[in-house]
Amino acid sequence: MTSKELKALGLENENPGSSTGSKWFSKGAWITSNSPTNGKEIGKVQSSTRKDYDKVIQEAEKAQLAWRNIPAPKRGEIVRQLGDKLRELKPVLGKLVSYEMGKSYQEGMGEVQEMIDICDFAVGLSRQLYGNTIHSERPGHRMYDQYHPLGIVGIITAFNFPVAVWSWNAALALVCGDVVVWKASEKTPLCAVACQKIIADILKANKLPEGISSIVTGDKEVGEWISTDTRIPLVSATGSTRMGKLVASTVAQRLGRSLLELGGNNAIIVTPSADLKMTIIGAVFGAVGTAGQRCTSTRRLIIHESIYEQVKKALLDAYKQIKIGDPLDSKNHMGPLIDTDAVQNYLQALDKIKAEGGKLLNKGEQLKGKGYESGCYVTPVIAEVENHYEIVQHETFAPILYLIKYSGDLENAIALQNGVRQGLSSAIMTNNLRESELFLSQNGSDCGIANVNIGTSGAEIGGAFGGEKETGGGRESGSDAWKVYMRRQTNTINYTANLPLAQGIKFDL
Ligand code: NAD
């Protein structure tokens, strides 16, 4: 990525990492962002100190008082402008996502497209923040419920979707009348600075208060400031289940609201009637795309014994064709892991699979030599395992695909699919209506996302996104996910000269 391209996104070699709108400041330690694609330094971002953080929150509080009084459709107009700017910058922002995070350029562009899509969704939503009208049991009374802005939304995000997750939250929160304070992953700080520059310019051009959108930069300590802060009524946190448990308990201590989007352990059930061509494409993209670093990556394939060998062979053939290398080169299918710590986790997971009795079907290794100088490239692995293995029960954020055999009825496969602690995404490959409906029924998948004849990864923004159990229960993006960003109020109006009490209670004076 050239310095001209970085400049087009407002990035310098050294960037302050705290901002309220277009005012940038920071006094903390420097974070160096190196590209996992080639190990080279992209730039530095200065962390926020507690003082910087407090300044950001004070500005956000002030800005919210003004922002909540701007009519929702007018707030939608600002989000429309954000979507337009993202359309313009899609190639260069997509490239930064690819270069700083390591996903393919196509996926980087796809991530920016998701930002554009959620902006479009939010613009329409800004005229549809509907409550209900309710018939009162009392004569001459009218009841309704309405939704008011909540205040400051704290957004904590993971490295693997370094721009889209912010926008899923910010676009909805902004039309809902909230202001946003974002702490991005310390592994992808430049993506956050670039997004903040984009929205800050829009706020400035529209003469709006600076603190409507802010960022703070740093590691988990800055995240902890957000989760303990009583000035922040909603904390939306995306990341590992370990992090989510800590954030959930901290926010619950102060009876705040949290929206949690945590780890997955996603499976595709492959039934005897499955279309195997579709199955192989869905499974390989799900397992290898983003080098297995999507929350919705396919981790487990639960295959009926009657077709097990056939699927195994087709997968091994497909894996032989996967090209690994620079994600900005479109001929490569798979780029690097985020850093060398992630490579160590991958290697340890391979050891654990073997120690528990699993079998690696192809060689899992860290790649060395020309093109792999960053030390972050690995080969994608297929392993035969049993569902109950400790390692299979955990999400390993790497391209490792587990093959699990089932026999008998679909109920047995569903029990395996549900037999993990996470509950994000799930899929079934079948051409049998009964199997498909059972999978989607109350006796089927226990996940937040259940697909038929589609893989586990790659959701559309129109649906609510999130998962059950240790995935955290939160829902973001489409459908009615917006409601978590607002406070609901029930209103009853008496337009008579009498005061009848509810439930027929008599109280005569
Ligand atoms: P991580 O948990 O290490 O970090 C995520 C964010 O949380 C970072 O910004 C980090 O600084 C912050 N953080 C860490 N500990 C914290 C604490 N105690 N208090 C407050 N903030 C804290 O996750 P990661 O390695 O960046 O991302 C990978 C994980 O994210 C995977 O488990 C993946 O499944 C999950 N993820 C989930 C979704 C989803 O929508 N369900 C989406 C993307 C990623």
TrEMBL record:
This is aldehyde dehydrogenase (NAD(+)). InterPro entries: Ald_DH/histidinol_DH, Ald_DH_C, Ald_DH_CS_GLU, Ald_DH_N, Aldehyde_DH_dom, ALDH7A1-like. It is an enzyme of class 1 (oxidoreductase). Homotetramer. The lineage of its organism: Bacteria, Pseudomonadati, Bacteroidota, Sphingobacteriia, Sphingobacteriales. Residues 1-26 are annotated as: Disordered. The active site is at residue 261. Belongs to the aldehyde dehydrogenase family. It comes from Sphingobacterium humi. Keywords: NAD, Oxidoreductase. Residues 31-490 form the Aldehyde dehydrogenase domain. Transmembrane segments: none annotated. GO terms for molecular function: aldehyde dehydrogenase (NAD+) activity. Its EC number is 1.2.1.3.
